Automatic annotation (TrEMBL):
Its EC number is 1.11.1.7. It is found in: Secreted. Its main location: secreted. Disulfide bonds join 35-115, 121-322, 200-233. The keyword Oxidoreductase applies. This is Peroxidase. CDD domains: secretory_peroxidase. Removal of H(2)O(2), oxidation of toxic reductants, biosynthesis and degradation of lignin, suberization, auxin catabolism, response to environmental stresses such as wounding, pathogen attack and oxidative stress. Ca(2+) 2 binds at residues 194, 246, 249, 254. The record marks 62 as: Transition state stabilizer. Pfam families: peroxidase (PF00141). It catalyses: 2 a phenolic donor + H2O2 = 2 a phenolic radical donor + 2 H2O.
């Protein structure tokens, strides 16, 4: 019992450390006088898109994360270049669902009708992420605003700066640590895999070639789950076939992801390692047992994502079109 209490104290202390904001230039009431109904406008656009396809939920969340982890929370991932060498063209971003991009573009269009030339695409993406999380059952949280849109989007900057599906905990920590994230942040943000899907190719080795042994299956898989995955993802499956990251509540933002890890239902190596590695296991167990604790930690961590390398007016712009720079680059 004492060991358990000590573990919980350690986790709570790490959450407290994570709560320190890195986005001093941002403010929750940034658009209070210039676009007072901003959140309502963005959330309505997100809701309409979700009603068309539930893929919108994970697509927007993932887009926000992939954007911020490269050159900061500056909407650089939205840029489309004729040379096809923008961030979105990198191999790591090829799997970003088009529904995420479309959601932001639609929201921007509606925002421009009400508040022309005022709100950045970066802020719309941050708000859309919050709306998608809340609309799928996740926590409601205040979004700090005041970002400018970035002026650099280069595919070469992406390589090695996003977590991979086969990463062990050391590799995950290396990616997150350079941005100031704690281990609690890392585990909490991984909890976004409670929604969404994954292509079979991203975890096929766990089913058919574990540790380089042809025909071997990762023993940390729940055996029944492994059999189900083999039916959905045969060894010769096509590159477009995907399965849900959470097989039980795939469009609900909840803490079941962590219970899945405990029970061998983690789809990716980078998911299941959070439970199999003893350094992160207590955090997984805590979040699995307490959804409120997960939500609180997630809100802190996603706030830190949105505060990464925020651009000022001198470093960015308010794009008229989220997919193109205003100024000639």
């Amino acid at each position: 019992m004492e060991a358990r209490r000590g573990t919980l104290i350690m986790i709570l202390a790490l959450i407290a450390v994570s709560s320190v904001s890195t986005g001093e230039a941002l403010s929750s009431d940034y658009y209070q006088s210039t676009c007072p109904n901003l959140r309502q406008i963005v959330c309505e656009a997100v809701k309409k898109k979700i009603n068309e396809t539930a893929v919108t939920i994970p697509a927007v969340i993932r887009l926000f994360f992939h954007d911020a982890m490269i050159t900061g929370s500056d909407a650089s991932v939205l840029i489309s270049l004729p040379t096809e060498d923008a961030e979105k063209d990198s191999s790591d971003n090829k799997s970003l669902a088009g529904d995420g991009f479309d959601t932001v573009i639609r929201a921007k269009k509606e925002v421009e009708k009400a508040c022309p030339g005022v709100v950045s695409c970066a802020d719309i993406l941050a708000l859309a992420t919050s709306c998608a999380i809340e609309l799928s059952g996740g926590p409601s949280y205040t979004v700090e605003l005041g970002r400018y849109d970035g002026l650099v989007s280069n595919a070469s900057l992406v390589d090695g700066n996003l977590p991979g599906p086969n990463f062990d905990l050391d590799k995950l920590i290396a990616i997150f640590d350079k941005h100031g994230f704690t281990l609690v942040d890392l585990v909490a943000l991984s909890g976004a895999h409670t929604v969404g899907f994954c292509h079979c190719s991203r975890f096929a080795d766990r089913l058919y070639n574990y540790n380089g042994q042809l025909g071997a299956t990762d023993p940390t898989f729940n055996p029944q789950f492994a059999d189900q995955l083999k039916q959905a993802c045969p060894s010769n499956v096509g590159p477009t076939i995907a399965v849900n990251l959470d097989p039980f509540t795939p469009i609900t933002f909840d803490n079941l992801y962590f219970s899945n890890l405990v029970n061998g239902y983690g789809l990716l190596t980078s998911d299941e390692v959070l439970y199999t590695d003893t350094r992160s296991r207590p955090i997984v167990q805590w979040f699995a047992a307490n959804q409120t604790a997960f939500f609180e930690a997630f809100v802190v961590a996603i706030g830190k994502v949105g505060s990464l390398d925020v651009k000022t007016s001198a470093e960015g712009e308010i794009r008229k079109d989220c997919t193109a720079y205003n100024k000639k680059q």
